[in-house]
Write a structure and sequence with these properties.
About 35% of the residues lie in helices and about 20% in strands. By secondary structure, the protein is of the alpha+beta class.
Length: about 180
């Protein structure tokens, strides 16, 4: 499978498993899962056929592990990043001392005032290391990496969850818990 096809399939899956499943006639259960057979039938019916081998390759090879199969391999879901209601059923866990968030300089005035908000997603996404946060921020321009006092937030009662692909999720990050450049 060439890299262009991997990217196209990954973007298609993101759109339909995170944001618009109804666009291709998919139904996700409350935890975001759908049957692989239903997904493959829906993609074929909407002129974007994906083979089971291609799907398996994208799930396994995606550098961000955006998608996951259930233990049977018969269901699939996005690991996080949904704009539609889903409950990933992730337990609250103690975070590391600090986490990181990649953004761009143009967002800093709003972040200084309001902190980090989930915007059109269900949670703020945080990275476990500066390198990952830099890559995330670079998607929108020259990256700026913010440091989050995760231990301080946890002590103040904020709950953290970690997705299957290592992305840390929290409802919001208030300004006092942020170190900005």
């Amino acid at each position: 499978m060439d890299e262009r096809r991997v990217v196209k399939v990954s973007k298609y899956l993101s759109k339909h498993l995170r944001h618009q499943p109804e666009r291709i006639g998919l139904t996700l259960d409350p935890a975001g899962w759908t049957a692989v057979a239903d997904l493959l039938a829906a993609t074929a019916a909407h002129d974007f056929p994906i083979t089971r081998d291609e799907l398996a390759h994208v799930v396994a090879a995606n550098d961000k592990q955006r998608f996951a199969f259930d233990e049977t391999g018969e269901r699939i879901r996005a690991s996080q990043g949904h704009s539609i209601p889903v409950d990933l059923d992730l337990p609250a866990v103690a975070p590391p001392e600090v986490l990181f968030h990649g953004t761009v300089a143009g967002s800093l005035p709003t972040i200084r005032r309001d902190g980090l908000l989930p915007m059109n997603r269900h949670a703020v996404h945080l990275s476990p290391d500066e390198e990952t946060a830099t890559r995330v921020g670079a998607r929108r321009g020259r990256p700026v990496v913010l440091t989050v006092d995760a231990a301080g937030m946890a002590a103040a009662g904020h709950e953290f969850r970690v997705s299957a692909n290592g992305v840390w999720l929290v409802d919001a990050v208030p300004p006092p818990f942020l170190t900005l450049p």
